[in-house]
Specification:
With 127 residues, the protein is of the alpha+beta class. It has a single domain, classed as Winged helix-like DNA-binding domain superfamily/Winged helix DNA-binding domain (Arc Repressor Mutant, subunit A). Helix content is 31%, strand content 20%. It is built from 3 helices and 6 strands. It has a 3-stranded antiparallel beta sheet. Helix 1 (3-21) packs across helix 3. It starts with a helix and ends in a 6-residue tail after the last strand.
């Protein structure tokens, strides 16, 4: 294995570990700060894309339009993201509410392929 491949593997491992350990979704800038000089910002984007394609993480767009990433914790029975996200207006944490199932009613002619529910307010620590 060459040095470049070893570094990418180390970066992928580190980024996945950071997301798995985090209780909140992380932005690219958060991840870049946490990995230090292990890899550059482009490598981080590539690793995040690969992890998302593999179903290990998912992307969430917060109320400000910032893309954040969270580890998949509910996907043992198949990859899905039909859960609600909560964005705290005070501490800016973005959390997956894994036991809250969103509901909606659409006309029969529509087919839902993906959902992205984000609620905004104050988390328990900030309320």
């Amino acid at each position: 294995m060459d040095v470049k491949t070893a570094r990418k593997t180390a970066a992928k491992t580190k980024i996945h570990e950071l997301l798995a350990a985090s209780k909140t979704a992380l932005a690219h800038s958060d991840i870049q700060h946490m990995v230090g000089g292990l890899c550059d910002r482009v490598t981080i984007y590539r690793v995040l894309d690969r992890l998302a394609e593999a179903g290990a993480i998912h992307k969430i767009v917060d109320m400000d339009g910032t893309v954040k990433y969270a580890a998949c914790r509910m996907c043992s029975a198949g990859h899905h993201h039909n859960h609600v996200h909560f964005s705290c207006q005070k501490c800016h944490a973005l959390l997956c509410l894994e036991n809250v199932v969103p509901s909606y009613t659409l006309p029969e002619t529509y087919t839902v392929l993906e959902t992205n529910f984000t609620l905004s307010g104050l988390c328990p620590q900030c309320a």
